[in-house]
Design goal:
Strand order of the largest sheet: 1-2-6-3-7-18
Structural class: alpha+beta
Order of helices and strands: HHEEEEEHEHEEEEEHEEEHEEHEHEEH
CATH superfamily of the largest domain: Zn peptidases
Shape: elongated
CATH class of the largest domain: Alpha Beta
Distance between the termini: 30 Å
Length: 387
């Protein structure tokens, strides 16, 4: 089932924020789960063209606010395909053990794996003392303004937030199960403007050259580690991405020098600590500094039942436990963490995400599906341990 579902999903060109009828397809799959002991609740949202879906399964007659709750989450939107593909990017062409197409790795592969796993798990054994849900959005690759965060706000108001969540982003490096993301660094963008006084280069005493003002201090900013990191996170590094000033002439000194930078930060740093560091470097220089946090760092401790049980299943399926990582960019997992949900990310390899000829190995989809099946069995049996 996961392979046929994946092909069906890939054939729908759901470029952000388009949804292309994918939710209807998934709801039809779930409607085929026939058991008198199971009830469901569906919440759908549409804001500014973005569509979100929350689908909850729970035991018939249960107090849905009181049971342990596991959620699988992800996005069904994809980035534009680009040109010069070997196979048509929305054809889901199967060749030599791979399925080609935009979104096969990021992340319709993960969605097809957990939707299929849920269907198989609930058909074989209903829920007794726990709840199971999915949360999907059509805006993760874009701004994310009306996506996962908005649905979580709704769930919080209705006392439906999950206790733990698996986001099926493509986290693996070589094969499915070699990496679990248990956290992510945050991202802080900065703009630093060194103020000067424009003038003729022949009269430097009448000018205030911002380039000269910065001078030797640049080395204390460019590429500097703002902390030493810890067992979960690499050091937070200040990375300068753009420097510009002047009018592209050789006889006029600049009025100012503009520097743009980014810090992928661990919980050891934030806007205040970055501001204090820059103030200490620049001291009395005339400057303005603007900082904006685009995402917060988070961590799910490695000793939680979510991480331990998932890694135990991986070890059984692939013969080795996964590396616990916080590397890479940001994802919607950060929104779950901000709402107090224990969250990890596990999916297929990511070697071709957003690239021409994106593809996924069929075996990686099947392994991910089987990992989710076994994990669901553990959760249904011992759900209280995950709260």
């Amino acid at each position: 089932m996961p392979l046929s579902l994946l092909k069906d999903l890939v054939k729908l060109p759901s470029i952000t924020p388009q949804e292309c009828g994918i939710y209807t397809m998934i709801k039809e799959k779930f409607s085929q789960i026939q058991t008198p002991l199971l009830e469901s609740l569906v919440i759908e949202q549409e804001n500014n063209g973005v569509k979100n879906l929350f689908y909850l399964f729970y035991p018939k007659g249960a107090d849905i606010g009181a049971l342990p709750h596991l959620c699988f989450a992800g996005h069904i939107d994809v980035v534009p395909a680009g040109e010069n593909w070997q196979y048509e990017p929305f054809s889901a062409k199967e060749v030599d053990g791979y399925i080609y197409g935009r979104g096969t790795q990021d992340m319709k592969g993960g969605v097809s794996a957990f939707v299929s796993a849920i269907c198989q798990s609930l058909k074989s054994q209903s829920l007794e003392n726990c709840m199971l849900s999915i949360l999907l959005t059509s805006d993760e690759e874009g701004e994310g303004t009306y996506g996962t965060k908005i649905m979580l706000e709704t769930l919080q108001k209705r006392s439906l937030l999950p206790d733990c969540c698996i986001v099926a982003e493509p986290t693996s490096t070589h094969h499915t199960g070699d990496t679990i993301k248990i956290g992510r660094r945050g991202s802080i963008n900065g703009t630093l403007i060194i103020e000067g006084k424009q003038g003729h280069v022949a009269y430097p005493q009448k000018c205030l050259n911002p380039i000269e003002l910065l001078g030797s201090k640049l080395g204390l900013l460019a590429g500097v580690n703002l902390d030493n990191g810890n067992s979960y996170f690499e050091p937070s590094k200040l990375v300068i991405t753009d420097i510009r000033g002047g009018m592209e002439v050789v006889n006029v000194t600049p009025q100012n020098l503009k520097i743009m930078f980014n810090v992928r930060n661990s919980p050891l740093n934030n806007e205040d600590s970055i501001r204090n560091y820059i103030e200490g470097v620049l001291e009395t220089l005339p400057y303005t500094l603007t900082l904006k946090t685009s995402s917060l760092p988070f961590i799910t401790e490695s000793n939680t039942e979510l991480v331990k049980s998932l890694n135990a299943v991986i070890e059984t399926k692939v013969g080795k436990k996964a590396e616990l990582s916080t590397s890479g960019g940001t994802s919607d997992a950060r929104f779950f963490s901000a709402f107090g949900v224990k969250v990890v990310e596990l999916g297929v390899p990511n070697d071709r995400i957003h690239a021409i000829n994106e593809r996924v190995k069929i075996d990686d989809i099947l392994i991910l599906h089987d990992i989710f099946i076994d994990f669901l069995a553990i959760f249904k049996k011992s759900a209280k341990k995950f709260v």
